[in-house]
Amino acid sequence: MSTTGKRLLFAALLIALVGAADALNYQWLTDEELTVWGDRIKFWHGDTLEGDVRSNSQIAIMQDPVFYGRVITTASDFWHGTGYDPQFLGPPPEFNAPGIYVGGSPGHLRQCSAGQGRFFSFGPEWICRLLLDSNLVHVYRWPAGTPFDSTDHFVIPLLNGDYGLCCFFDCPIEIAGRVAGRLTIGTSHSAGILDNILYVDSDPLTGVTPQYSPNYFALAAEGSIVVLNTPENGRENSGGLGDAQTDPNLTDVVLCGAYYALGGSITFQNQNDADSGYVCACQPDDRGDLLTFGGFVQSRRGYLHRSTRTSTGYHLRLRWDHRLRYWSDFVWAAEPLPDRTDTLDYGPVVVGSTAWDTAYVYVADQYAFGGATATYPWYSPGGSPAYGDSFAVPCRFTPPHTGDFRGILSIYIAGQTFPVRLLGEGTLDVADHPALPHDITLSAYPNPFNSVTTLSYVLPAGQGGQLLISDITGRAVAEFVLAPSTGIRSLTYDAADQATGIYFAQLLANSEIRIQKLLVLK
Fold this sequence. Notes:
Helix content is 6%, strand content 45%. By secondary structure, the protein is mostly beta strands. The strands form six sheets. Strands 1, 3, 4, 6, 7, 9, 10, 14, 16, 18, 20, 22, 23 and 24 form a 14-stranded mixed β-sheet that branches. The longest helix is centred in the N-terminal third of the chain and has 16 residues, at 3-18. The model is unreliable at 1-23 and 430-437 (pLDDT under 50).
């Protein structure tokens, strides 16, 4: 392949890698900032966001909201409102960023729920109330348009295991409670938040959870997620006292976990809009703070505060739960890119000897690697990295006798299985084959990293290569000439002089290319 061809291929892969993202890499991810009525919702005084914020449209800011993480938008600037004075206490804002996918139907969650026998097809004529009670989910069902009825009731126990329980309800739901374990809830309609949603080990006032907590929660609605106007959520100016209310049962909403409004918005009920049919006699109607320890994803920005009745709704106090980057919550599947390995053909191998080859899986964003298994007489010791968007999985073939062999290498990423077909032949009349991968490989560990990472690579036997490090614009920031070698080699890359952001390591050898995305966090 020519140098021009290699650079074009690199550019195409760069677009693929940047142009799609896992929602859980962001504390706040929105596709469209305007409401369905064309209103522009602003981040404003009193809003504090600890994690990364990203939008596929122009972000509006007025007064002095505080951002501790990255703020990323596809627009060339923010919309500037009255008293524009945002406090960026982390990296500088990023403009003209590529858009990323937000929305759609959580088909993977539907499939996982059906596989666990937890897909409930009640239909829109019913409403389900889910009360989370540690490792139990109490479900109450009653006809839509009628008062709540606790008569029709059943209990779902949380499953033990690495990935936990997923449930999908084909009806509107209401939900509140405390979670012990790993739980993902989905609905084909909207979800109403009755009260706080916490882990059993969370701080009840802030939602902050220990770093090594085993508890995780996700809520995915194909419609909107709505904070209901209940007394527990600060109804009628936080029980009449507004900001002076100190009883946590009458003000504030605390939410732990990941919240996806894939076909709507994350918003609140009864916004004191005369057209809605509800206007509180109180003025203002300050319902407290909306405190989160997790992330929000929404198709379209929804109101969480209005200027009606002088002031209605919530101030945002959003904290990011970094653990969510490493948890597969079933909402979105890890999407494989088309150039992943589908077959490893070892050809003839002398009986009793061993040949190695390597399978590669490239996914659209950062996911956790769950291991690999292979059918006999193949064996895989696993793969690397533990977390990333490209995975190299070595696999050895040791034929016990002559003849043709067929098998499957199963690669587990983010709770999914990526199968690779295995072919080989045991023979007595061929020369020894090298017991090393014959393809080129590239990986980085640790990744993400603060300053220094180790790049491990394999070159074709007896051949050299070139390793380029580029930033997100394609500008080269480092270059290494690799001498001919055999087997796995490594080098240390020091990014001390580089800013926080996404970089790409590009390995060129024998007219082939491998790309590893690098994330520098300082």
